[in-house]
Every structure is written in structure tokens, then in C-alpha cells.
């Protein structure tokens, strides 16, 4: 029995050694890795706080970039847009009035007032001269002469005032007043643009092609910018997150061709390529490493994969095979795509 037990132990030990030696490494001309399908996700939310009006998609729906997904109640936002538009219209009228200056009718009226003031001044001067002559002959009292002088001074002041008013009408508004009105118009226009932006943000659009993974709220709920509405899964690019041993890093390069298979579709091979190799080990190594421990370190590898029939799902276990003879040349810096890989 002892030789039989020894032979059995040797066979088992040899099998374990062979399994550990081939797992993750495969034949020398290819590298076999094991991982899971991974995708990027985005939580979509409105930029405003309001009640949800309608939700247009459900879990599992495939959406395209720019597609309308949901809307909010917009009555309050539309009213704010109308108020801002009215303010802009009123301020534009003020700016136009200031820029146009005085109307011709106002200038003509100012000139007429100057002419009238000149006539009153001429009359006051004649009265004052006659009164002064009479006063010299003692025909009138000093009070009458003073009244005539006062009337002359008033006529001169009225003429100066009417002339200055005419000058202001001909010069038009001050440039500072025009600049102030223009600045106020710019502020009102900015407020209108903001109100319109808020109204546009009441509609939620898909930022990219993908699949609705979660529908988190329902119509009628009050939401805010911190409230996710949908979780959108990005279906392109799709990759397999795997881990490569340190001993294989010397032969692993981004852009190398790869094939991916899953247990769900064992007869299907998906084309792919190495998209990313982590520059650091997945786990923090010890300060002192023996050669045996260093070979056990693993590095994250992302293998982009084409999924034409939408068969791959998030978290699905996958096997990645990378033939080392399929590495691209050092001079080829083009980013592979499903089209450039020759289809699926």
C-alpha cells in the first residue's frame, strides 16, 4: 500500500503543480486571463429643483445620445422667462430713447422758447431805458426805476435758462446715462438667458448611447440636482477587467489583439484588444519581497471587447485569450476599434 500511496501523492502534486503553472499563464505563445465584464455608468439628474412631470423610458430601454428621457413641471420657469423678457424689452426701449437723443419737435420748441425769451428781454430793456430817462427828469419815483431794473434782470435770466435748455436738447443725453442704460440692458439680457437655460434644463436628455439600468424616481416626486433620476450604463466601450501576473507584463502591450469567451455563450468568441495595463500592482507589496513572492503580484488589465449582439452583461465572468504573436508594432499608435478589428 505504501508504494501506491506514494504514487498517488506524486500524481496529485504533479497535477496541482501543472494547474498552478498554467492557470493565468497558459501556453508560452498566449496568455489566458480570467475576469468580469465591466462598463461605465452615470447617474443622471436634473439641474433644477421641481416636481417630475413625466418619465419617458424604463429599465432596460436602449437610448441614444440626445434622446429626451424626462421632464419637470415648467409653469414657474416659463413665467420667469416671460418676466425677464419683459424687462429686456423695457430696457431696450430706454436705450433706444437715449441713443436717439432729443426729438426734432423738442429742439424746435426749445428754440421758440429762446426766441420768446429774447423778445421779453428786448422789451424789458426798452422799458428800463424809458424809466431811467423819466427818473432823471423826476417824472417817476425810484421804486418804479427799481421795478424796471428787476424786470430786466429776470428777462436776462430767463434767456440764459432757455439757451442752456436748448443746448442740452441739441447735445442729447449724457454718454454716462447711455452707458448705464446699456449696462442695465446687458444685465437684463443675461437674466433672460439664465431663465431660458433653467427652462431648458427642465428636460433631461441622454448624454450618450447606453441602456437604462435603474429608474430611481416616479412622476410627481420632488427632485433636486442631488437626486438621481436614472442610472445609464455606457455600452461602448465595453471591457473585461482581468488581472495579469507580473511575469507576463514584459510581453503585454496596449493594442494587442485578444479574444473573449463566456460560459453563457461558450461557442461565441468576441473580438477585443488590450486597452489598459495598470502601472502598479493591485495590492500593496511588502517592503522586502523574495523572487517567489514577486511573481505572485497581479496587475489590472482592461481588455476592450466588441459586443455586436448585446450578449455581454455587467459582471459576467469571462475568459480572455491574448496571443503574443498578435502584438501590434511599436510604431502603430492607432487606437483599435471594433471596425478596425475587422468586425465581430
Automatic annotation (TrEMBL):
The keyword Transit peptide does not apply. Keywords: Coiled coil, Periplasm, Signal. InterPro entries: Beta-barrel_RND_2, HH_YbhG-like, UPF0194_transport. Residues 83-199 form the YbhG-like alpha-helical hairpin domain. Residues 323-344 are annotated as: Disordered. Residues 107-198 form a coiled coil. It is found in: Periplasm. Residues 237-322 form the CusB-like beta-barrel domain. SUPFAM superfamilies: HlyD-like secretion proteins (SSF111369). GO terms for cellular component: periplasmic space. Belongs to the UPF0194 family. This is HlyD family efflux transporter periplasmic adaptor subunit. It comes from Halomonas nitroreducens.
